[in-house]
Description:
By secondary structure, the protein is mostly beta strands.
Amino acid sequence: xxxxxxxxxxxxxxxxLGSVAVAQTVAPIEPFRLTVDISRFRxxxxxxxxxxxxxxxxxxxxxxxxxxxxxxxxxxxxxxIKQADSIxxxxxxLVPHILRDSxxxxxxxxxxxxYPVHLKPGDYVLTFIARDRYDPKRIDSLRIKxxxxxxxxxxxxxxxxxxxxxxxxxxxxGAFYKNTLDVIPNVGGLYIESQACYYYAxxxxxxxxxxxxxxxxxxxxxxxxxxxxxxxxxxxxxxxESAVLVxxxxxxxxRTGSYTLVLSMLDSSRKTLATTGKKFFVYNKELGVDSTLLxxxxxxxxxxxxxxxxxxxxxxxxxxxxxxxxxxKEQFAxxxxxxxxxxxxxxxxxxxxxxRRDEYLSRVxxxxxxxxxxxREGYRSDRxxxxxxxxxxxxxxRHPNEVDSKPYEIWSFHNLQGGVIFVFxxxxxxxxxxxxxxxxRNELHDENWDRVGITR
Length: 456
C-alpha cells in the first residue's frame, strides 16, 4: 500500500504571517521525541470503533528554516496499522509550524494533533515513525499494541478517557471538535501545578435495563500506590441513550508523581455498572514529592526484596539509574527504612512489566564484570551504560593497537532505530573508553570523532 502524503492542521499552526526577513536557520534545542496517546469511542455503525490517535512533540525539537512566511518547521509522521503482520493501513503527513522570527523560538509549546481512524474489532499494532522535516536524521519511533472491542454489548459501558489541556464550546469542522466541544488533547497526560486537569469520556447504552432513574458518575483519583486522593459523584439524567462526560480538577492540589483517574458509572441504587481508567502525571514544584505516599503499597513486596537490608536496597536502586526517572530519584531519596524501600522497589519493577528486573540486572552484572575500571563499577562507564540501556551489540569492531590512533571500539545495533552505532575511545592508556560519537538520536553526536581526539 503506498503512503499518502497530506498536510494536517495542528492546534499550534499559526495563520499566514506575511513576508518576513529571516537571518538564518534555527536549530532545535530539545531531542526530537514523539508522544502518542489513544482513546477508543463508539463508532458510527455497529461494526466499527472510532479510534482517536493523539500525537505531539515539542516545538523546540524541530528545525526551522527561512521561508517567505518567516521561519517554517514541521514534523513528518508516518503511521502503519498492522494486523497479524499484514499492513492494513498506511499514511504519512506533516505537522507544520511557523515562527515570526528567531526571537520566538524558545517557547515551550507542544505541537499536537488528532488522527481519527475507524477499525473493526481485533488486535492491532500501530507503528509511528516521526522525523524532523528539515533534519531527517533526527527521528523517533513508537510501536503500540491496540486491542479494539465493540461498545455494542447489552449493558451500559464507558469509553476510554481522553485527557485534555482545555475543553470549551467549539465550532463544527475544527480539528478537535466533537459533540459541540473543542477538546484539545493533553498528549501524555502531564500537568503542572498551574493547570486544570480536564478529561472527556462518553457513556453508552444508558436505556438498557429496568432502571429508569438517574445514574451517577463517580470520579476517583489514586496515587501511585493506590491511595485515594480525590472522590466525588455527579448525578445525571437518563436523557438519552448516550451521554458526554466532561469534568476537571486542579492539578495544584496534587504533589509531583503519577496518578490514575478512574470513572465509574453507577445506577440509581449506587451499583457499579461500568468503569474506565487512565494514568496521568503531575509536576508540582510548589508542593514537591510526597514521600509518605510510598510508605504503603497496594501489593506485597516482591519475594526478592524480603531478605534485603537497606544497604542492599540502596545498592540496587543505584544500579537502576539508567531505568529511573528524576521524580523516582526524588521519591527514593526521601524514603526512610528498609520496609519503605522494599515496597518502592517492588512497585518500581512491577510498573515496568514482567521480566524487566531480571533482564536489567543481568545487563548490570555483565557491565560490572566487563567494563569496570580503576575501582568504578562497570555500569557507570560509558560502555556499561550503553550495554544496560540498549542490550548486547550485534557487532563490536575493536581497534586496540592501531599505529596512528588511540584504542577505540565501534558497537553496532542493527535493530535499534533502523541501525545505529556507538564509538568509544580510550583517551588515556589503561583508562576507560569514553563515548565520542553515536548515530542514536538521544546520544552524543560528532561526525569528526575520527579526526579529533583519537590520534596519538
